[in-house]
Specification:
By secondary structure, the protein is α+β, with helices and mostly antiparallel strands. It is built from 3 helices and 4 strands; from the N terminus they run E-H-E-E-H-H-E. The chain has a 4-stranded antiparallel beta sheet with strand order 2-3-1-4. The two termini are 26 Å apart.
Length: 108
Amino acid sequence: MTSSREVFIQGLTREGKPFRPSDWAERLAGAMSSFRPGGVRGGIGAHLGYSPLCVPRVINGISCVIVSEQLRDMEPMAWDFVMNFARDNQLQVTDACLLPDAGSGSAS
């Protein structure tokens, strides 16, 4: 059984202060955009999307980067880069699993 887990890097320091600059999550996810399952896509606009393994999100008003553990298996150096970024900037990191939107599944 394969389970996909994520690590949530929150834009809050260990002291609870907002991390700056405000676009840090987009910058970090942008730096990881080429690390994708199946490799880098070519063609026009290929550089415009985030990797599904490292995406920025705002959760409860806090900027976050959600990093799939698949990145560690696929490219350990990229995983280390992201985790070291969080550690060096004293950001809060939580192991979790992002659940699908309530409206995306069928409910009976």
